[in-house]
Amino acid sequence: MSSSSRGQILSELPNHVDAVIYELDMNCPQNIKKKLLALGFISGTNIRIIHRTPLGCPMEIQLDGCHRFFLRRSEAAYIKILSPLDWECESGK
After folding, report:
1. Can you give the pTM of this predicted structure?
2. Is the model's pLDDT at 4 over the cut of 70?
3. What separation in angstroms does the CA of 24 have from each of 6, 7, 9, 44?
């Protein structure tokens, strides 16, 4: 998984690759942030992209191995992720 200053954005994650949510981007609009938090997109949650439609939007997302949602690519771009190993190092586990 490539990384920028702090992780990668979910919309760039390849299908079927495990990651962990690091944080929501500080530029995320409040209405989208509320929606994502209410659905369980919080720091430390395991996440993976299960499927993308042919044009890449929407994408099917799986949280913690069981809950599935569809997100627009524009919404997924606000979710910062880390690899599971980077998350362990970052969180001090």
Report:
1. 0.85
2. no
3. 12, 11, 9, 11
